[in-house]
Every structure is written in structure tokens, then in C-alpha cells.
Write a sequence for this structure.
């Protein structure tokens, strides 16, 4: 093949950007030309629409991804959705290889009675709201004084921290204006976080757990009874430093006297959700108390516990979404694959189609882990290079002509730079008693597109 290999990567979260970067830098004796597609007008996936606004240290990763994209050898095409704007045959027509890096953007199900009641929410929806996702409502019903959060992962920590933190302490972050205003109205006094297993089995990470202890005017309440460790827990604590650290953090909080703070964060363990009850909307949540049985399995003890709450947030994991014309594992929420080579219904590799990141592996792990996924996937793509089905129209302009023909208002890297600069300037011009804001996110999709495509927009006053 004397022309460059044309590769489409679908999904501009960290996995997609890393895959593009690794392919660009890989040792090879042929040229590559990469287009990175994204359904949102802006890049970065869950870094923009998942990572909590009060976690600015993640900015370091964004800076690294920015540098990759800013080199100019990867073309970003935003506001283009696979399965809606372009089909698999479109991609097949214009590219020799396609990599799906579409992540996981929705909540895993929790099948308990009452889960659909008004006042019962998925953490992913709440996260999308507080991170200013363009496709979710600007309003969020923050009417509950007492709230339950189910799950003992980092998303549960993010959600309970954002729910309990005083919004003034987040004003300097990039929280959207509407989120700040609504959080200010929240009457919350108590947030209860429930894990179905014990303190030695939490899926938190130590830094994120410790952070809870620094939230101003929020007392952490823990029940000493939850720290009666079984043999397996003792083994886990002594063999894993991370677990040991987290158990120590929790035990230190046990010793602290409450400060009479205006809000409280209760951490409960050994609580398996059983039912959300209420006459209409959520009025409470019922749990089976659990313990490890003689065979080392988690089992109900027979004790049933009720907590009166007016809202429930389930943070029991994210889940991938099926993609048109691509096989999907509905149990695991991933595209079936072998090391990133996408498989068909007969479990055979589909020539020229690959997957990376959370849609390849499932929704666990940090941003950095998606680099490893990309390395493996790109390795197989390079191995398959001579058998990839060649594109019919490999010219770089052809796909742009098609997008324009279909009236798709795609955004570009230059467009993102404009939007990025605009958001920073909104932050810089914000004036509230000396609080500095680095960025104010533009939330409505149309406004994001308009600014990115450089049509006349009035900056907000
Ligand atoms: C709430 C939350 C907070 C987190 N906070 C942290 C943190 O602080 N630190 C950390 O290290 N990790 C954090 N993580 C984990 C981290 O976000 C993931 O490891 C990482 O984002 C996974 O990368 P990905 O590229 O596979 O998926 P994503 O980041 O989800 O990117 C997938 C991209 O594909 C796009 N896409 C989906 N479908 C289509 C389609 N049909 N057409 C076009 N584009 C499509 C999506 O819009 C998205 O931009 C967090 C995760 C969550 C859920
Ligand atoms: N700041 C950060 O670094 C940050 C922030 C957010 C997310 N992340 C990362 O993103 C990934 C996803 O995080 P996550 O919190 O969504 O997932 P997670 O780490 O897998 O945690 C999910 C939690 O939900 C519980 N759960 C699952 N099903 C349940 C059920 N039916 N009933 C009760 N509890 C149930 C799990 O309990 P069991 O353990 O018993 O299954 C676990 O405690 C993780 O790797 C996380 O570290 C990182």
C-alpha cells in the first residue's frame, strides 16, 4: 500500500487519544493518517464529563492529552455520533481500520424493588449533571435532607462528597453556574454511604477516601460494630498496603469526636440493599445486614435495617452501551474481543475492527490504565496490517465531504481550542468576592458547537 493507512478511532476519551498517540509513534515502515471521532463537541470523555470538578489535579493528564492532540498529526472530528451520523459501512468505506473507544457512560442496573421510584437516581446521571454534560437536563431535584448512596467505589465517594460539600468550597472549580446555584439550595444534612461488604473490601482508593476527611463542616460518622473483622478480612488487611491504609483512615475517624458540623457523612458497611420503599416517592431504604458465613461467602444475617431517606443514588458501577452492527456482550457491557480484536457472533475476529479502553475491558480502572489497553490493541492492529480490508475512498477529504453533504456540524481541534479559550475567559472574568475561577464550562450543545465553529457568539456578561 503506497498511501497512508487510514484509521478511524471512535470515542475521544483517554483510551482513544492514547490509541491515536501510540499508533502515531509506533515503529513502522508506512504512513498513518488518523481521524479521532467524538459524539460530543469537545474531547476527553469522562475526564470532562466524569471526573469530579473538585479534582483539579487530573488537569495534569488533560495537559498531556492536549499536547498529543495539539501536535497536529491526529485529526479531531467532534459532534459526530457513530450509529447516528455515520454507520459501520461508512467507516468501512473511508478507513482501513476502525477502533472503538466508546467507553461506558451509563449506570449499571440495581434490581431491587422501588429502584424506579421518584427520588431514586443513577450516579452516572448525577455526575453528568454536575459536570455539565450537554445532553442532560440543567435542573436536578435536590430536595432531600437525608440521602442514601449505594456502593463503595470511587464514584460513590465523588457523589457523596459533592452532595455533602458546601458549594462555596467548589466555586473555584469548573462547576457550571447552574450546578452551583442548585447545590446552594440543597437542604441536605445527612448523606449515608452503604457498602454491601466490609471496610477491608472497599473499592475506594486511599487518597480519595482521605479526601473525605478534609471536607469542611461535614462530620464523618462510622459504626464501630462494622470493624469486627473476620479471618479473610484480617488476611486482606495484612497482605495489602492499600487496604491497610484505608482501614486505618476509617478507624482514625472512629476515634474522632463529632464537631457539631451542619452536615454529616455516615459510612455504613455490611449493608446489602433490599428495597427502596415509599408511598409514591422515596421515603426510605431497607437493607439486609450481611456478614461472611462459615464458607467465606457474603450472606444476610437475618437482621433487616431501615433508613428514612428522601433520595437514593446508586453508584454500583458504570456499564457500556451496545453499538449498531457490532456484537455486544450484554452481561459484561463490553464489545467481545480478544486483546482488542473485535469478535463476531461466531467469536471470530472481524477484520479491521478493534476496541480499546472501557468498552474493551469493562468500566473499572483509572485513566492511566487505558494506556495499557491501547498499547495491546495497537500492537494487534499493526500485526494485522497486511490483511486489513482496504478502504474504497481513503482520501482525507472524502469523509469531510460526506459530513458536509449530510449537514453534520462537526467540530475540529481548532474549534476545541476556541471553546477552551472561551471557557477560560468566562472563568477569568468571573467576579465574586475575590474567588478565582479557572474555567466556566459551556453546557448547551448548540452553544458549544457555535463557539467551536466560530460563528458569532456573544460572550456571557
Ligand atoms: C464518575 C467518574 C469519575 C472518575 N474519576 C477519575 C479520576 O479522578 N481519576 C482517574 O484516573 N480516573 C477516573 N475515572 C476513570 C476514568 O474516567 C476512566 O478510566 C476513563 O475515562 C476510561 O476511558 P475511555 O476512553 O475508555 O472511556 P471514556 O472516558 O468514557 O471515553 C469514551 C468516549 O467515547 C465517546 N462515545 C461514546 N459513544 C460514542 C459514539 N456512538 N460515537 C462517538 N463517540 C462516542 C464518549 O462520548 C466519550 O467521550 C472516573 C470514572 C468515573 C465514571
Ligand atoms: N478519583 C478517582 O480516581 C476516581 C473517581 C471515580 C471513579 N474512578 C474509577 O472508576 C472506576 C469505576 O468506579 P465505580 O465506583 O463506578 O465502580 P467500582 O469501583 O467497581 O465500585 C462499585 C461499587 O458498587 C458495589 N456494588 C456493585 N453491585 C452492587 C449491588 N448489587 N449492591 C450493592 N453494591 C453493589 C460494589 O461492591 P462489591 O465490591 O461488593 O462488588 C462496589 O463497592 C473505578 O476503577 C474507580 O476507581 C476513579
Amino acid at each position: 500500500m503506497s498511501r497512508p493507512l487510514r484509521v478511524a478511532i471512535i470515542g475521544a476519551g483517554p483510551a482513544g487519544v492514547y490509541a491515536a498517540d501510540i499508533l502515531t509513534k509506533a515503529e513502522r515502515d508506512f504512513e498513518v493518517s488518523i481521524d479521532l471521532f467524538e459524539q460530543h463537541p469537545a474531547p476527553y470523555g469522562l475526564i470532562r464529563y466524569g471526573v469530579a470538578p473538585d479534582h483539579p489535579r487530573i488537569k495534569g493528564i488533560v495537559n498531556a492529552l492536549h499536547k498529543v492532540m495539539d501536535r497536529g498529526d491526529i485529526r479531531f472530528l467532534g459532534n459526530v455520533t457513530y450509529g447516528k451520523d455515520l454507520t459501520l459501512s461508512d467507516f468501512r468505506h473511508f478507513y482501513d481500520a476502525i477502533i472503538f473507544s466508546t467507553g461506558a457512560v451509563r449506570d449499571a442496573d440495581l434490581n431491587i424493588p422501588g429502584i424506579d421510584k421518584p427520588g431514586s437516581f443513577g450516579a452516572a446521571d448525577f455526575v453528568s449533571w454536575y459536570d455539565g454534560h450537554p445532553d442532560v437536563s440543567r435542573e436536578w431535584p435536590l430536595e432531600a435532607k437525608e440521602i442514601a448512596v449505594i456502593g463503595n467505589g470511587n464514584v460513590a465517594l465523588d457523589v457523596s462528597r459533592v452532595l455533602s460539600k458546601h458549594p462555596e468550597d467548589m466555586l473555584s472549580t469548573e462547576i457550571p453556574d447552574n450546578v452551583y446555584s442548585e447545590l446552594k439550595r440543597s437542604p441536605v444534612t445527612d448523606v449515608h454511604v452503604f457498602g454491601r461488604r466490609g471496610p477491608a473490601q472497599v473499592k475506594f482508593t486511599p487518597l480519595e477516601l482521605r479526601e473525605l476527611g478534609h471536607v469542611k463542616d461535614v462530620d464523618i460518622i462510622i459504626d464501630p460494630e462494622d470493624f469486627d473483622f473476620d479471618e479473610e478480612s484480617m488476611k486482606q488487611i495484612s497482605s495489602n498496603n492499600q487496604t491497610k491504609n484505608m482501614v486505618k483512615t476509617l478507624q482514625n475517624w472512629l476515634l474522632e469526636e463529632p464537631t457539631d458540623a451542619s452536615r454529616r457523612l455516615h459510612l455504613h458497611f455490611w449493608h446489602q440493599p433490599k428495597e427502596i420503599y415509599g408511598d409514591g416517592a422515596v421515603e426510605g431504604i431497607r437493607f439486609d445486614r450481611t456478614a461472611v458465613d462459615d464458607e467465606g461467602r457474603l450472606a444476610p444475617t437475618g437482621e433487616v435495617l431501615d433508613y428514612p431517606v428522601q433520595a437514593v443514588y446508586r453508584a454500583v458501577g458504570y456499564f457500556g452501551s451496545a453499538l449498531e452492527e457490532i456484537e455486544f456482550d450484554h452481561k459484561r457491557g463490553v464489545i467481545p474481543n480478544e486483546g482488542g480484536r473485535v469478535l463476531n457472533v461466531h467469536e471470530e475476529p472481524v477484520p479491521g475492527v478493534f476496541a480499546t479502553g472501557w468498552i474493551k475491558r469493562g468500566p473499572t480502572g483509572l485513566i492511566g490504565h487505558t494506556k495499557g489497553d491501547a498499547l495491546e490493541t495497537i500492537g494487534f492492529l499493526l500485526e494485522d496490517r497486511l490483511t486489513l480490508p482496504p478502504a474504497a475512498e481513503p482520501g482525507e477529504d472524502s469523509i469531510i465531504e460526506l459530513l458536509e453533504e449530510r449537514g453534520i456540524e462537526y467540530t475540529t481541534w481548532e474549534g476545541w481550542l476556541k471553546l477552551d479559550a472561551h471557557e477560560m475567559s468566562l472563568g477569568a472574568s468571573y467576579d465574586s468576592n475575590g474567588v478565582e475561577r479557572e474555567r466556566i464550562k459551556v453546557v448547551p450543545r448548540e452553544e458549544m458547537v457555535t463557539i467551536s465553529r466560530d460563528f458569532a457568539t456573544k460572550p456571557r456578561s
About this structure: The mean pLDDT is 95.
